[in-house]
Design brief:
8-stranded parallel barrel, TIM Barrel, 283 residues, alpha/beta, 10 helices, 8 strands
């Protein structure tokens, strides 16, 4: 018998007092559907290190299951050890461990960790099983990978270094995810791989971000979204339908859950939740 799907949400640390209040309101709205956990991103080169820490600690203190991201780029072993000691002392026991992005002008391997697998290995070496570890997966191939085969091997290395499960980059092609899961299993690597889900609210922004991170917007979707021009309501309605249908297909195919990239807004995720018929909040 399969375990019930696990649903989770992701936030970015707020950058000013107004954004702090907005995020508190957003997380309160999303709490109505009882996400299993709330992850907090870590900016390029550690640019949001303190914001990630303070946001995760505040959520944890509020009784939420907070899951901070940590990144190897621009991090030393001593910095990571100190940060994780802080999380462990606070009672946080769950991490998303990433290689991370380098800021412009910084070499991609700056710091003590060239690959995410190296960072996973240090967390396990220093802290044993004190933390549950999520890592990233790329169903449409990491944009910097030399080949799909190399990308698969990099993923397997992260798992064998000690990862418990994975969250994917967002995608709109379910077949890419299903093939990736099958390919990983053929390499005798067996961990839950949770699809990352990106709501569609602003096509121009989404197209720019997708081009940067290697996430494909299928041509038929791109043409439909372009046809709406500046009609934001139509973009949101079409996007909610498409992404809700994607969620339904993924769950029907056996995905172990869904992880929503909320962009610090509740309404788009809640609309997809409703249209996809995801579990209602507990009474």
């Amino acid at each position: 018998m399969h375990a019930a799907p696990v649903f989770s949400v992701e936030f970015s640390p707020p950058r000013n007092a107004e954004a702090v209040e907005k995020l508190r309101a957003t997380r309160a709205e999303l709490a109505r559907v009882a996400p299993a956990f709330y992850s907090v991103t870590f900016g390029a080169g550690g640019s949001t290190r303190e914001g990630t820490l303070s946001t995760a600690l505040e959520m944890h203190a509020a009784g939420l299951h907070a899951v901070p991201h940590i990144s190897g780029v621009a991090s030393t072993r001593a910095m990571v050890r100190e940060l994780l000691q802080t999380y462990r002392a606070a009672g946080i026991r769950h991490l998303v461990v990433l290689r991370g992005d380098a800021p412009s002008g910084m070499a991609g391997n700056a710091g003590d960790f060239r690959y995410a697998a190296d960072l996973v290995a240090q967390v396990r070496g220093d802290f044993g099983d004190a933390f549950r570890i999520e890592v990233a997966a790329y169903p449409e191939v990491h944009p910097q990978a030399r080949s799909p085969a190399e990308d698969l091997q990099n993923f397997v290395r992260k798992v064998r270094a000690g990862a418990d499960s994975a969250i994917t980059q967002y995608f709109y092609n379910a077949d890419a995810y299903l093939r990736f899961v099958d390919d990983v299993a053929r390499l005798d690597c067996h961990v839950p791989i949770v699809p990352g889900i990106m709501p569609i609210t602003n096509f121009t922004q989404l197209a720019r971000f997708s081009d940067q991170c290697g996430a494909e917007i299928p041509r038929w979707m791109r043409r439909r979204l372009e046809s709406f021009g500046d009609d934001r309501a139509s973009i949101r309605a079409f996007g909610a339908d498409v992404v809700a249908a994607l969620c339904q297909r993924l769950l029907a195919a056996g995905a172990p859950g869904l992880h929503f990239y909320t962009m610090n807004a509740a309404a788009p995720t809640l609309e997809i939740w409703r249209r996809a018929g995801l579990p209602a909040p507990p009474a």
